[in-house]
Amino acid sequence: MKLNFNDITLDISSNGKTFTLALDDKTIQAEVLQAENGKLKLLIDGQHITAYVSSDNAKRWVTVNGQTFVLTKSSGVRRGGHAHHAAGELTAPMPGQVRALNVSEGEAVTKGQTLLVLEAMKMEIRVHAPRGGVVRKLFVKEGQTVEREQILIEIEEN
Hints:
By secondary structure, the protein is an all-beta fold. It is 0% helix and 62% strand.
């Protein structure tokens, strides 16, 4: 199976509870230790990791160490895809409340920059810029409650 997030394609093969993840020339071994109610306890290359997962058909939102990644299934043909809308719209990975808004309209941003922080289920979720550009429009403000897939920010690519 292939999963895409941002501009990266991850190849995953499974043997029951053990997975092999291939990214470029790096291979990672992962094992699911426990899975219940959207919470996964994993053993990845000998390190214990907790991940929170929610899904909507082909999309999965995975939060690890406060960072959320949107994964989409790939047919293996698509290249350079990204998990955000084509117009550069970033959406909420899950329902929550905007705790911090770190940018303003017209501000230049770089790929990976934390744009805002959501609080959901007693955890902080940092929403990062998928690519460099300029913040065209903010659709939320600090303290606002948002729903899953609600548009948060629109970024215009440079």
